[in-house]
Automatic annotation (TrEMBL):
GO biological process: L-arabinose metabolic process
Reaction catalysis annotation: Hydrolysis of terminal non-reducing alpha-L-arabinofuranoside residues in alpha-L-arabinosides
Native organism: Flavobacterium hydrocarbonoxydans
Protein name according to UniProt: non-reducing end alpha-L-arabinofuranosidase
Record family assignment: Belongs to the glycosyl hydrolase 51 family.
Keyword S-adenosyl-L-methionine included in the entry's annotation: no
Glycoprotein keyword on record: yes
InterPro entries the UniProt entry points to: Alpha-L-AF_C, ASD1_cat, GH, Glyco_hydro_b, Glycosyl_Hydrolase_51
């Protein structure tokens, strides 16, 4: 028995010794008496691009598709189920698109000839249907002109797929001149795939244009405004900036298809439709009905920035079409109008109401400056052609607006020849901020948490303008917003936060995706016609942004940054406003880890708050059925003097908050 007892005691001793050694390995030190650097208010922001039906059919709450008959196929989105086209022996009525002008913006209208007072119907399918909610109000409007006959009433109805009426209203056209008419529908049921049916009483010919439908429940109740649930998700992020309008739509496949901000402001009906560059970009998800109405234009982007407390960051064309498509270039001697667009945009955002563009802003309802501080030149351009053009923009903008910070770019990749060349040349130009993009595997994000540790502190500041872990590969339609991607991004984000002296802005991309209209995945927020939810990636972003802090402080292990030792990643800040020390700890291990944390620098409360984000498995996702399956859970923990002992769950992102006395 004695040898067995000795053996057991020896084994127990070895196990305890191993556990003790393991615990020693997980000792972290935090010094909150010293600030390493300030955390920029723009550290965590959002990047909006009109991809995945993010604008029309998404954030912009218009429910009628092709409201003014301006798509390439002018009747797209519309249907006349019982017109003369389909009924050979009857004469109910017919619609015809009339192009009355090739100049300006709104070129077309629809002429309706009604021969049967009880028969002719016009339907609009919406954006993959129309989401309506029981008892909510919806505002309908159109422009009409009675050309002949006596059409006495226009009836407007919500219908479902079985043609059941789910709400009804009407308008009485009275004028032979173009006149605006409005009415309101109340939904009698909740339906994700409703359509609008328009029928006519009487016979004759009537012209229709700008047929529009908005929920009354928009963000801040604004007429013809934004979808409230989507803006709420953005608002809850507390973003430091809003980058817009893209992304590759800034460049366009050709220069003619680039985003031109001046066409997106002023009266809604005067804004020119444009095909969206994501329309047929990917064979796996062609969307030939994807256009830009610019109802969500630059004024609305600036207004949205203001609403959600974010600094506006517009990106403009530098005279280069997308280099993945045509790569079309504006000759250098023809670049002036592009540069003038940038100067005029700054005037539109900040100029006095006595200036031309400042007056337009005031006329649109915002006499106060939008306080624009940043402007981006080009999206993902690279090579000597970009540098040559950037120099011209930089010189002109700084000459007129020396306090505006200019954002430049190094192309679409975080390494390689394009990146190295761009960074070298931009440093020569003393560029203020360089935009870096990376769509990489989860493993890449974990391995590159030290990416910015050795960046030149005297060089350009960094804008991590687009990043997202790809569960399969870049641009794959099989990519998922799974938990491994999300916590791997969190691990990388601790590295960006640890280098806040260099990294001044960061944003996940893309932001929004319609579940039936997407082209690219993964995406931060998914929505359908009725609902929306944040992905695990969304909640990672929210945890970091809501706990940004004001000052970076050191969190170390054996005097070194915590960059993946024992599969732990960490960063720490203090908030001089809320008087808190805030630790962000990411455990990428398959096992929980007990960590001893020694906090030095002052007295602390005897308890703190923990916000824990974790999934049960690497492939866990949120969904419409379980929108908060992976979302932060709050608990308390004890602080013994300056010591915290905490178990960090496997595959978890944890924020620990402790009040300073």
């Amino acid at each position: 028995m004695k040898p067995n007892l000795i053996t057991k005691m020896t084994l127990c001793g070895l196990m305890l010794s191993g556990l003790f050694a393991s615990a020693q390995k997980n000792n972290l030190e935090v010094d909150f008496s010293k600030s390493v650097t300030k955390i920029q208010p723009t550290m965590y922001g959002v990047f909006f691009e009109d991809i995945n039906f993010a604008a029309d059919g998404g954030l912009y709450a218009e429910m009628i598709k092709n409201r003014s008959f301006e798509f390439e196929l002018p009747f797209m989105g519309w249907n006349e189920p019982n017109s003369d086209r389909h009924k050979l022996n009857e004469k109910s009525g017919i619609a015809k698109i009339i192009q009355y002008s090739q100049k300006g913006t709104n070129h077309n209208y629809c002429r309706i000839t009604v021969n049967d007072a009880n028969g002719y119907e016009l339907l609009n399918e919406g954006f993959r249907g129309m989401g309506i909610k029981k008892d909510l109000h919806y505002n309908f409007s159109l422009k009409a002109s009675k050309e002949s006959g006596n059409i006495s009433k226009i009836k407007i109805q919500f219908i479902d797929k079985n043609k059941k009426v789910l709400g009804e209203t009407s308008i009485v056209p009275t004028s032979n001149n173009w006149t605006n008419y409005t009415a309101q529908l109340v939904a009698t049921a909740t339906e994700a795939k409703a359509q609008i049916k328009i029928t006519f009483e009487g016979t004759g010919v009537i012209a229709l244009d700008m047929i529009s439908l908005f929920p009354e429940d928009t963000w801040k109740g604004r007429k013809n405004g934004l979808r409230s649930d989507l803006v709420q998700l953005l608002y809850d992020l507390k973003p430091g900036f809003l980058r817009f309008p893209g992304g590759c739509i800034v460049e366009g496949k050709t220069l003619a298809e680039r985003y031109q901000w001046k066409k997106s402001v002023g009266n809604i009906e005067d804004r020119e439709f444009l095909i969206n560059r994501w329309n047929i970009e990917f064979a796996h998800k062609p969307t030939p009905d994807y256009f830009q109405s610019f109802g969500l234009g630059f004024f609305e982007y600036f207004q949205l920035s203001e609403d959600i407390g974010a600094s506006p960051l517009p990106i403009l064309s530098c005279g280069m079409a997308c280099q993945f498509n045509t790569g079309e270039l504006v000759p250098m001697d023809q670049l002036d109008p592009y540069v003038q667009d940038a100067l005029d945009l700054i005037e539109f955002a900040n100029g006095d109401v006595t200036t031309a563009w400042g007056k337009l802003r005031a006329d649109m309802g915002h006499p106060k400056s939008f306080n624009l501080k940043f402007i981006g030149v080009g999206n993902e351009q690279w090579g000597p052609d970009y540098i040559e053009r950037f120099k011209v923009f930089q010189k002109a903008i700084k000459a007129k607006y020396p306090n505006i910070t200019i954002v430049s770019g190094t192309g679409p990749f975080p390494e390689g020849d394009y990146f190295d060349y761009g960074m070298k040349e931009l440093k020569k130009l003393n560029t203020e901020i360089v935009d870096e993009h990376y769509y990489k595997s989860p493993e890449w994000f974990r391995k590159n948490a030290t990416r910015y540790d050795n960046y030149d502190r005297k060089g350009p500041k960094i804008f991590a303008g687009e990043y997202a872990a790809q569960s399969v590969e870049i641009a794959s339609p099989l990519n998922k917003n799974n938990w491994e991607c999300a916590f791997s991004e969190a691990a990388f984000m601790t590295g960006m936060e640890r280098n806040a002296e260099v990294v001044h802005l960061t944003s996940y991309a893309p932001l929004l995706a319609h579940v039936e209209g997407w082209q690219w995945t993964p995406d931060m927020i998914w929505f359908n016609n009725l609902e929306s939810y944040g992905t695990p990636n969304y909640y990672v972003q929210k945890l970091f942004a809501n706990n940004r802090g004001t000052d970076l402080i050191n969190i170390t292990k054996d005097g070194k940054a915590v960059t993946g030792q024992n599969d732990l990643f960490a960063s720490a800040v203090k908030d001089t406003n809320s008087k808190e020390v805030i630790l962000k700890i990411v455990n990428t291990s398959s096992a929980s880890q007990n960590v001893a944390i020694d906090l030095k620098g002052g007295k602390l409360d005897s308890k703190g708050t923990a916000l824990i984000l974790k999934g049960e498995g690497l492939n866990d996702e949120n969904s419409f059925e379980s929108p908060k399956k992976i979302s932060p859970k709050e608990s308390e923990f004890k602080v013994k003097g300056s010591k915290v002992q905490y178990d960090f769950p496997a595959y978890s992102v944890t924020v620990l908050k402790i009040k300073m006395k």
